[in-house]
Amino acid sequence: MLQTHTPNAHSLGSVTGPTHRVLSEAEALSRLRSKRGQPGYLAMFSSWLGGIVTDPALMQIPLDDHLVHRGHGVFDTCTLSGGHLYRLGIHIDRLLTSASLARIEHSWTKADLIQMVTDTASQAGIKDGAVRYWLTAGPGGFSPSPQECDEACFYCVIFDPMPLGGTGSNPMSSGIPEATVLDTPMKPPLLATIKSNNYLLNVLTHMEAVDRGGTFGVLVDDTGYVAESCVLNVAFITRDKVFRTPPFDGILLGTTIRRVMDLASTNLVQEGLISSVAQSPVLASEVSGDLISEMFLCGGDTHLFPVTSWDQIPVGDGEVGPVATRLLELLEQEAFGTGFGEAADFIEVPYAD
User: Fold this and answer.
1) How far apart are CA 217 and CA 202, in angstroms?
2) For the domain that residue 310 is a member of, what is the CATH number?
3) By residue range, what is the domain housing residue 57?
4) Are residues 80 and 131 in contact, defined by beta-carbon separation less than 8 angstroms?
5) In this structure, are residues 336 and 283 in contact, taking their beta carbons and an 8 Å threshold?
6) Angle at 158 between CA 154 and CA 160, to 5 degrees
7) Residue 163: how many CA atoms within 13 Å on its side-chain side?
8) For position 116, which CATH number holds?
9) pLDDT at residue number 261
10) Which residues are catalytic?
11) Which of 89, 186, 245, 271 is most open to solvent, judged by the fewest CB atoms within 10 Å of its CB?
12) Shared domain check, 293 and 250
């Protein structure tokens, strides 16, 4: 007779019943506070709650928000500098474009979103920090359809800035090594041009780069042209002093690289550090030859990382170059209020008493 196997309690890994009890409201809140005990998360706005919280334990997003389980949400950032929101307007423009491409329906205007970010910053209690915000399809269930979502949601958090590229010596002054990412595919063009929460490929790009001795990773397309880094745009200075960066076709429309191009075409041309600015395809093979004198990655308003080696081959003379040094100086002067900048790029935060 054919024998059938009946799993016993031991094979199922359960012997005596449940081992985790139901927490009371007070216990859950206490544990949330112990998990979120680290400093740095200062204020969060949630349209779902209809206001701002300053207790990190309460800075939560609904589990059934489609941002969480489907990645159906877009985000952007800006810098809080000297009590002003630096370049928030251009970042909100990109957020709205991303939301439209992601087919997230909502009723907020640009002014509405700026007001919500400004209100959050006013409760954070700091003059310098980082700002991140999300526009999502909203909560409502676990299907792929946003039709089950009752309302789109907007979340914003103000936090102490976290270093990119390491916590040792400043990589923006000392430079970084980079590596070509070979095993992680590039995003398809639609996802590459939307600043969405679908960032798994970005994370894997960074992880593979570190495995290969790099920092953020450099993606090269199938025809040998440089695309972008995991969360940064790439730029080069040629031996004949031309600033070159890849076209935005199929990569993120970076706000920082566009500002860097503006600064390069005005200040750096006038100062004689470069001759011109061009947005044109760059072959990876050009960098390993003798055509490129500098290479750097930029993003996040004020981050510019000189690349001193790529795949263990020195870029230029293997040192941080004068163009990268000057551009970083200009970015920091503008963002942190010691130099220049358009008045519209600085929204003053009305801090609470």
Assistant:
1) 9
2) 3.20.10.10
3) 33-159
4) yes
5) no
6) 150
7) 10
8) 3.30.470.10
9) 97
10) 195
11) 271
12) yes
Helix, strand, coil percentages in the chain from 3-state DSSP, rounded to 5: 30, 25, 45
CA gap 61, 64 in Å, rounded = 9
pLDDT of 276 over the 80 cut: yes
Q: Is residue 22 part of a domain?
A: no
Same domain, 177 and 152: no
**Number of structural domains the chain divides into:** 2
State the CB neighbour count (10 A cutoff) for residue 295: 25
Residue type, 173: S
Q: Are 240 and 274 in contact (CB under 8 A)?
A: no
Mean pLDDT of 314-332: 95
**pLDDT tens digit string along 54-90?**
999 999 999 999 999 999 999 999 999 999 999 999 9
Cα dihedral: 138, 39, 116, 161 (round 10):
-100
Q: What predicted TM-score, i.e. pTM, was given to this entire model?
A: 0.90
Residue type, 204: L
For tokens 């009752």, name the residue: 150
> Which uninterrupted H or E stretch holds 242?
strand 242-245
Mean pLDDT of 104-120: 98
- Residue 122 counted as domain residue: yes
What confidence tens digit (pLDDT) does each residue in 20-52 have? 899 999 999 999 999 876 668 999 999 999 999
